[in-house]
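User: C-alpha cells for this complex, please. No commentary.
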Amino acid sequence: MTSACLIKVRGVVQGVGFRPFVYRIASELKLAGWVLNGEEGVAIHLEGDDRRVEEFLVRLKSEAPPASRIVAIEVEPATANGFQKFTIKESERKDRPTVRISPDLPVCDQCLEELADPVNRRHDYPYINCTNCGPRYTVILALPYDRPNTTMKDWPFDDYCYREYHDPGNRRFHAQPVACPNCGPHYYLRAGEETIRGDEIVIQRTVELLKAGQIVAVKGLGGYHLACDAKSAEAVTAMRARKFRKEKPFAVMVASIGDAGQLAELSAEAIELLTSIARPILLAPAKVELAGVAPDNRELGVMLPYTPLQHLLFEAGAPSVLVMTSANRSSEPIAYTDEDAFDRLTGIADAFLVGERPIARRVDDSVARVGALGPAILRRSRGYAPGAVASFPLAHARKPILALGADLKNTVTLVVDGQAFVSQHIGDLDHYEAFRAFEETIRDLMTMYEIRWEDVLLAHDAHPEYRSTVHASRLAAAEKIPLQHHRAHVASVLAERGAWEQKVLGVSFDGTGYGDDGGIWGGEFFVGSLVAGFERVAHLRQAALPGGDAAAQYPVQAAAGFLAQIEDLPNLTDAPFSFPGRYHTALQLVQKNVRTFPTTSTGRLFDTAAALLGFTRDITFEGQAAMWVEHVAHGAGSVEPYPFPFVSGELDFRPLLHALAIDRRKGRDASEIARAFQVGVADGVARAIRSLAADHRVNLIVLSGGVFQNEMLLEDLKLKLKDSGLELWTNQAVPANNGGISLGQAALAAFRGQARC
Ligand SMILES: [Zn+2]
Ligand SMILES: [Zn+2]
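Assistant:
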C-alpha cells in the first residue's frame, strides 16, 4: 500500500547532519518526498510503500547522526502529492532565525579514518570535518548558518569540495566549514623570528619542541591552549611561573581512554562523560601524581583530543600526557585571536602553532565530573554552549528575557520563544578583558537571534555595585528586574527540570551574594516555587565579615569575624595556629565595627575552618581554601561529626568551630579534624533540612551554589538523608556555581508577577 505522512522530529536535529541522513535513508528505501529544517525541528514528508515507511521510522531512530538527540517524533497522515523523488528543501524562515546554533563537535570516527588514510585527499589535514563533526559555534559569524556567514568565508571551495558540499548523498553535504588541503586553511609555526609552513612539518616541529620541554601555544576550536609535557616537572614549573598561576590545577590531554585510565580512576559513567559529544575536561580521582600539575588535589582534570590537530600531534609522537591549559595569564579570559595571542602570550609561550581559520568567539573547555548525585558541570562552555538548556512555558516567556548573571564565573542567558540559551563561561567581570567578553556575548546573542532592546525583559543581580548591575542600567531594555542571588541558584535547578510549580525547600550555599537586607548572604534556606516565589526560612548564624567581599582572598580575615563570637579559644597567634598579623587587624575592625559587614556565607565558614587547620596564607584562586579542607579530609577514616546545631531557624557555627580549634590545639590528626568538620556540616545541614521539610510539608530538596561542588558534602548529605523519604535535586545542565545564575535569573524573571523577590 502506498500512503503519505508528515513526520516531525524534535530535539537537537539541526546543524548535526540530520537532513543528509534523512535523505540517505529515504533514497535507500526508494521513498519520495522532502525534508526541511522547520520552526521546531526537522519536518519530513514521505510518500511510498507502507512497510518501507515503517522501516524508515525504525532507522530514523536507530541510525541517527551521533551529534543528534531526538526528543520526540510525531507522525501524522498527509495527502500524497505524487512526488517522484526525495529532496532537501530550503529552511523555513519566519520572523526570527529558527536554526538553533549547534555547539562545536569533536572530530568523528569517519573523519579520523580518512585523516589516517595515506591515500585520502584529507590525509593528515588538520581542518578535516563533515556534517557529523567539527566547529559550529566557534565559526559562526551570523545566521543563517551558511558558508559566507562563517569564518571560512575567505576560503572558496575547489571543485572537489564543491561537489561534496552539493551532493545530498555525501557526508559533507552542506557541511559549512568543509575544506581540503588544496582549498582550505593550514597551520603554521611561529618560533621567535622564524615562521615555518606546511601542516606536516609544523606538527612534527611542535612535537619536537614539546618533547624538549618547551611551552607551545596551540590554536584550538575556541581559543589557544598552552601545551607542555605534563611529565616534565621543569616544563610545568615554567608554565606556572610564566602564567602567574601558582596553584590552580592544570588540565591534561591524553590520546585515548586507555591512557586516561592510567592517570585517573574512571567509572563507566566517567568514561561516558569523558567521551561524550562535549568532550569536557573530566575531573576524576587521580591515580598518579604529576609534579606540579594539580597540587593539593585528589582529582585530576583529564580530556581527550577533540580536534583533528590534537589527534595529529599525538599521532606524530607528542608526549603522552600534555598539559593543555587555557592560554591566558592568571584569570584573564582565554586568548582567541592570533594578534591577542601573540601580544599576551609572548614571554609565556616559546612558540605558536597557529591555524589560519579565525575563531569567531572565545569558548573555553568545559569541566565536568561524575558527582554523588549524577553528572555535574563545573564550567559549561565548549561542546555545550550555546545549546538550549530549558524550555520555558510560552505563557511566561512571550517576550525575550536576557539575564546578565553574576559578576564571578559569569554567563548570560537569553530566552527566545521559550528556549533558554545559556552562553559559554565568560569569567570574572572585574577583569577588563572578561567584561569586554561579557559585552560582546550580549551583543552576539542579541544579534544572532535578532532581538530588539525595546522588546527585552532584562534580569540582573540585586547587588547595586555589581558590574553587571551597572551595565544593566545602561542597556535600553524596556523592563529591568533585579533578582536576589541565592534564589537564582535555587531557580536554576528548577528551570533545568521545567519544575515551574513544584514547591521545594531550596538550600543555597556559596561564598557571597547580595541579600534582601543588604548583607552578604551564602547560607540560605528557602521554601516556595517559581510561580509562588521563595521565602527565606532559615540561614547560617550571622557573623561579621571585616572588609566585606575582599575577605574572600584571606581565610584568616574571614576567620576573624566568625571566631570573634566564640569564647574560650586558644591563642591563635601561637602554634599550631600561627595566625599572621592580618588576623589581628581584621579582629580590630570587627571589634570596632568598622568596614565590617554582616554575613551568613558558608564559603567564609569553610575559609575559617581552613585557617584553623593551617591554611593561613592568601588564596590564589576562588574556592581554594574550601577545596583544601575537602582534600585534607579525604585522608581520614570514620569520625564523629563536630556539633552544628540547628536552632530557631539558625545553623549555629560556634560549637562546630570551637570543637575544631580545641582538637587542633590538642594535636589531633589534621585529616581527622577536617573530616569531623565536613561531616559536622553535613550533619547540621541534614538536620535543618529534615526539620524545615517537615515544618513546611515539602519532600523535594534543591541544593545549589558553589559550596555544593564539595563532593564529600554531597555524599555525606545523601547518606544522612537516605531514609528520610526526601528527594535531592542538584544542577545537571548548568553549574551549581555562579555559572548557573543567569538561567535562574531568567526563570525568576519569567514568573516575576508572583515571585516575592
Ligand atoms: Zn566528521
Ligand atoms: Zn577542497
